[in-house]
Amino acid sequence: MTDKTPDTPTPKTLIELRHVTKHFPVARGFVESLTRQPPKVVHAVDDISLQIRRGEVFGLAGESGSGKTTTGRLAIQLLKPTSGEVIFDGINLEKLEASDMRTMRRRMQAIFQDPFASMNPRMTLGTGIGHGLRIQHLETSQAAVDQRVKDMMNRVGLTPAEAYFDRYPHQISGGQRQRAVIARALVLHPDFIMADEPIAMADVSVRSVLLDLMIRLKQEFDLTYLFITHDLATAKYICNRIGIMYLGQIIEMGDIRDVYANPQHPYTEALLEAVPVPDPDHRRQKPIPRGEIPNPIAPPSGCRFHPRCPIAQDVCKHEVPTLRAAPTGGSNIAACHLRTGDYQHLDPTRAHS
User: Fold this and answer.
1) Residues 231 and 321 in one domain
2) Per-residue pLDDT tens over the stretch 141-161
3) Which of 70, 83, 104, 183 has the largest count of CB atoms under 10 Å?
């Protein structure tokens, strides 16, 4: 969480999450119900605040289970927050009626990780891509819908569109399915795209092609992206700013160059150290975090990273750090007592075991 969140979005802000929290209830067993134990929740996202500026690519990175996908779904209201607010272009989405929210969805679309799972296998590509146009009543005739779909298919590289229009998802390759999913998202001409691991399921040989396609389409349609990934090399290629998530919280955030060149949180350092380097003689300079990500049902007290942190001190176990600017300068802010907090005098080499 941050020390202070502005009361109103800046003019350049397209979407803002204000102290957003999402908890999922855990089903209780018979014994727990009988003994009336208190209900448990999964702390998927805990009190995060961020702003995504119009026209930028904002990345969210972290391990599996860090809350990236949940944050993305909260941003476009596929999930309702337990608490907090989502502001889109100055409009509080929590206060919209269902009909108004449906209209708002024209301006925000999603590209999901698995294109096969996110497409209806009984719909042809032409029907599936144009489904949103019919729901939103954006065209008056089927011929107009089909023409708009074919134009978009050509733009994403499904050319000639007539050759793919009547095919089903299982009749094309994985890379072509991902292009179809991109076409479905863009056919409504949205302002904001939530891209959740959009190239993770594609072959390595076509990932760079898909990234270049997304960059070109962003420029053509003046899009804003929330780009969710676990691959920091990919994030460096496409993102302007990035937020690093760990166990439901953002622990570092800033311009991509500052975060990569001068990471302030030990977890960010570990993620960057894990990026493969094409050099057989390269040796890691920083230790990789020990153990696994803790149980989100009962997250650690204090700094949630402290059980795995190589420089953790006693204070890290008890006090929750807040996002603060690094004393070394740069745009990145981090939540670390020993790097940006009030305990920088402590010796980080004497880690608490």
Assistant:
1) no
2) 999 999 999 999 999 999 999
3) 183
